[in-house]
Amino acid sequence: MKKILSSLVIVLVLVINLQAQKYFSKTGEISFHSSTPIEDIEAISNSASTVFDLESGKIQWSVLIKSFEFEKALMQEHFNENYMESSKYPKGFFKGMIKDHENIDLTKDGSYTAQVNGTLEIHGKSKQIENTAIFMVENGLISATCDFKIFVADFDIEIPSVVKQNIAKELEIKIKTNYELLDKS
Amino acid sequence: MKKLLIILFLFIVSGAIVGIYLFNKPVESIERMQSDYTINASELLVEFEDDESKANSKYLDKVIEVNGKVDKVENNEDKTTIYLNAGNPMSNIIFQLETPSSAIQTGEVLTFKGICTGYLMDVVLVRGVQL
């Protein structure tokens, strides 16, 4: 009985999702770049999860902080243990809305610029942000990109004074992903 | 006196070399690392679904070998992502491979080794290699 009920729920959820035109990816790419005269630091994650609903304009991203990979092992260790405290705050989130989402037609090839606003949560701290994202359709393949900047201090991330010169106060974040229609199991 | 100075000099130089080496040390390849856990895909997912924080403290940053059926292979630019079936239509065990591979086929039952980064809708492991 329980099994029947739970499969019924899954079917219902799938049906609702179908109608809602949701698109998702589990291999979203998020990279950040810190640039100072002393050193450039870059890290990348290729396993962010994201979903958006074209009908309501809701969009969500989540990423595991530990999935960011650095070139140097020591940097990765400091990033996780000292700055991001990734065992305490394992995930980063963004929840927001795509403005004028009704102007986006994902059934036609083209490029659409849209404002996306919402709440970014990193290191347990939330901040409202608004940025420009680009949704693209090429041969039916849907992708999205968004580049923006954040201040490290906005998220209560403390950088010890010894390395203050090495880490930029403002980080460049680059996001890109392909999206798939959420229509299969 | 001269000898002492030379010894001191050698000390400083070797210290500096070790320091520079440690600072620039690349992230270690996982292939030579010992696995902390060996588990099948469904069991791993169930542990995260049941109690995420408990599973986090057990598995985060650990090297895990996971066996399961390949549900999907995604090749994106130079990245390969493997989705292992974990008995749930919405969730998988996801491996980001260290080096891209086009040899892995959907439907094969394989074992991968990777570092556990946590659980979103799926359990995500990075720097994966096929065993």
What can be said about this structure in brief?
Chain A is α+β, with helices and mostly antiparallel strands. Chain A has two helices and nine strands; from the N terminus they run αββββαβββββ. Chain B is built from three helices and six strands, in the order H-E-H-H-E-E-E-E-E.
Helix and strand arrangement:
The complex is a heterodimer of chains A (185) and B (131).
Chain A lengths: L1 H19 L1 E14 L4 E14 L4 E7 L4 E2 L2 H11 L7 E8 L11 E13 L2 E14 L2 E11 L18 E12 L4
Antiparallel strand pairs in A: 1-2, 1-9, 2-3, 2-4, 3-5, 5-6, 6-7, 7-8, 8-9
Chain B lengths: L1 H23 L12 E4 H10 L1 H8 L3 E14 L2 E7 L6 E6 L11 E11 L3 E8 L1
Parallel strand pairs in B: 1-2, 4-6
Antiparallel strand pairs in B: 2-3, 2-5, 3-4, 5-6
- The CATH architecture of chain A can be named as Beta Barrel
Second-tier CATH architecture of chain B: Beta Barrel
The helix tally of chain B amounts to 3
What's the pLDDT, averaged over the residues of chain B? 91
Largest sheet of chain B: 5 strands, mixed, barrel
From the spread of the alpha carbons, the general shape of chain B counts as elongated
Might you state the CATH topology name of chain A? Lipocalin
C-alpha end-to-end distance of chain B: 58 Å
Strand content of chain A: over 45%
